[in-house]
């Protein structure tokens, strides 16, 4: 869970405060450093980002396109068109795990700007970010 205090050292940039132990809004670009799962240097891993798209976000943008990279290798963007819980997943090849930690970056094509008193460029509401073994 990205909102738990023990996750803070992994969250490098682009993360806003959220509801404790539940979620965090992200900026348009956000990154984290994640540990390499056991066996990933041999078998690869699966990148998983569990997130939520709010009704106002979808009403304003109509869709959200989310892209990711691991250690600089860019993965195919994925587009989401409905409010609610969703998940970005992508296989990460073994060649991207030369060390025990990797840099993971995400970005949205077009940010959500709430308006009025909040002019931040927001990405998505993240519940969980992980690299899981295959």
Describe this protein with a few key phrases.
Jelly Rolls, 134 residues, mainly beta, globular, 9-stranded antiparallel beta sheet
Structure overview:
The chain is mainly β. Helix content is 8%, strand content 50%. Strands 1, 2, 3, 4, 5, 6, 7, 8 and 9 form a 9-stranded antiparallel β-sheet that branches. Strand 1 and strand 2 form a beta hairpin.
Q: Topology, pairings included?
A:
Elements: E1 11-15, E2 24-35, H1 40-43, E3 45-53, H2 55-61, E4 64-70, E5 73-74, E6 78-80, E7 84-92, E8 101-108, E9 122-133
Antiparallel strand pairs: 1-2, 2-8, 2-9, 3-7, 3-9, 4-5, 4-6, 4-8
CATH superfamily: Galactose-binding domain-like
The helix count comes to: 2
Derived from helix and strand composition plus strand pairing, the structural class reads: mainly beta
Main β-sheet description? 9 strands, antiparallel
The radius of gyration is 15 Å
The sequence of SSEs as H and E is EEHEHEEEEEE
End-to-end separation: 20 Å
Strand content: over 45%
> What's the total number of strands?
9
Shape label: globular
Q: What is CATH's topology name?
A: Jelly Rolls
Mean pLDDT, rounded to whole units? 91
Runs with pLDDT <50, length 5+?
none
Short description:
Strands 1, 2, 3, 4, 5, 6, 7, 8 and 9 form a nine-stranded antiparallel β-sheet that branches. The chain contains two helices and nine strands, in the order ββαβαββββββ.
